[in-house]
Amino acid sequence: MRKLTDPRAVGLLSVWPADSNQPFECVAKTKETVTIPGTKYKVTVAEYLPHYSIDTETKKVFNQSDEPVNPAVRVILSDGKETVERWLWAKFLSSPHEQEKLPFRMRFTDFDLHDAKGGHVLAVASRTRAWVLLSGKAKRLERAVPGRAFPFADKEYSFTIEQIMDDAMIKTQWKNNSERLLRPAVVATVEQDGAGRQAVLELNQPFHLRMESGVLVLLYRRRPASSEAAR
């Protein structure tokens, strides 16, 4: 967790090796090479752009501003024989334009605050204690202590951690607020590899569900009533 305070840290890199449902995660630091456990591959974060853009004329990638509008990293994967290079975007699960295929599924999560007004980031990793990352000129970590108040940017308000639980589960219960067909919807369960995920499908509203293989678009529609049924 203390690697989050490194000035080169720009986010988290998640890698799913073959036949693995649990990703290998590490702090994404520019110009650093990390070995992916259980594989022959090493990954390097070669470049970070907070505002990834493409010149429409030259087709070259450039950084449009220092604001984290479209954060992206250029990663290089190598097994000693073959090298693959491509961009990963924090706001896109897959490339918005054609790229070379990666041997693993990868994801970049951006947390570079730049000059954001907020001063605290709650950081929690699997099988570790919760921490609070204090941003600013000198990044530092403090343990997340229940009952302690952490001020917001305007100093007039603060947030407090009431409770920290290990292996907690969030359960969502849906409720019908009216019998009128104002916003009809159905709750669908999508199963993959024995695991089920719920999706609330509103009438004629596409729902984008992120799966391991990509994005699944679901749409709930109704057939118009027939003339005989109308009579």
Write the layout of secondary structure elements.
Blueprint: E1 9-16, E2 24-29, E3 33-35, E4 42-49, E5 52-54, E6 61-63, E7 72-78, E8 83-89, E9 105-110, E10 120-123, E11 131-134, E12 140-143, E13 149-151, E14 158-160, E15 185-192, E16 195-202, E17 207-211, E18 214-218, H1 227-230
Antiparallel strand pairs: 1-2, 1-9, 3-4, 4-7, 5-6, 7-8, 10-11, 11-12, 13-14, 15-16, 17-18
Describe this structure in words.
The chain starts with 8 loop residues before the first strand and ends with a helix. It has about 230 residues and is mainly β. The protein has three domains: about 1-110, no CATH class; about 120-160, no CATH class; about 185-225, no CATH class. Helices cover about 0% and strands about 40% of the residues. The longest helix is centred in the last third of the chain and has 4 residues, at about 225-230. The model has no long low-confidence stretch (mean pLDDT about 75). It has one helix at about 225-230, and strands at about 10-15, 25-30, 35, 40-50, 50-55, 60-65, 70-80, 85-90, 105-110, 120-125, 130-135, 140-145, 150, 160, 185-190, 195-200, 205-210, 215-220.
- How many domain regions? 3
The Rg value, from CA coordinates, equals 22 Å
Q: Uncertain regions: pLDDT < 50 for 5+ in a row?
A: none
Strand order of the largest sheet: 3-4-7-8
Q: How many individual β-strands?
A: 18
| SSE pattern, N- to C-terminal | EEEEEEEEEEEEEEEEEEH
Largest sheet: 4 strands, antiparallel
- Give the structural class: mainly beta
